């Protein structure tokens, strides 16, 4: 295992523990995300269906669906970018790869805003994901097509001093937590 891979694995383990502790805390989690999305009406949004201890974007996604199309990720296979199938509150869902729920049917969308789940983030806009590279490939593809805003969504406790990165890692444009918004810089 390379030094970078070992550093990423250690960072993931520590971040999972912080996220699990934050997940147990009650209270509204998507208030700042919903507010930020309301300031960008009409732009297609990609959210995600929360799994395990991920922070829940569904209330903000439901609010965004009032003025824009909202999609959720569909994994077509290893090494491929994600595609986003249109989601609406109450739509029929089925298990997708890795157990995440996906809409049974719906149009495919090309989002202008991508809400990105993550394991950890830093103030420079770097994120640590699960290691599959799906969001990195997807953001690279979307950025090649035009303007897209990558919004990391996480508990504030998931912040790390520094994230080990490699050249293919795509940066976040901002990070929204239950306590506020972090603009990388």
TrEMBL record:
Gene3D superfamilies attached to this UniProt entry: NagB/RpiA/CoA transferase-like (3.40.50.10420)
Source organism superkingdom: Bacteria
Cofactors (names): Mg(2+)
Pfam family, one: 5-FTHF_cyc-lig
The protein's name: 5-formyltetrahydrofolate cyclo-ligase
InterPro entries, per the entry: FTHF_cligase (IPR002698), FTHF_cligase-like_sf (IPR024185), NagB/RpiA_transferase-like (IPR037171)
Catalytic activity: (6S)-5-formyl-5,6,7,8-tetrahydrofolate + ATP = (6R)-5,10-methenyltetrahydrofolate + ADP + phosphate
PANTHER family, A to Z: 5-FORMYLTETRAHYDROFOLATE CYCLO-LIGASE, ATPASE INHIBITOR/5-FORMYLTETRAHYDROFOLATE CYCLO-LIGASE
Keyword Magnesium: yes
GO MF entries: 5-formyltetrahydrofolate cyclo-ligase activity
Key word Transmembrane helix present: no
Family designation: Belongs to the 5-formyltetrahydrofolate cyclo-ligase family.
UniProt keyword list: ATP-binding, Ligase, Magnesium, Metal-binding, Nucleotide-binding
Organism: Limimaricola variabilis
E.C. number: 6.3.3.2
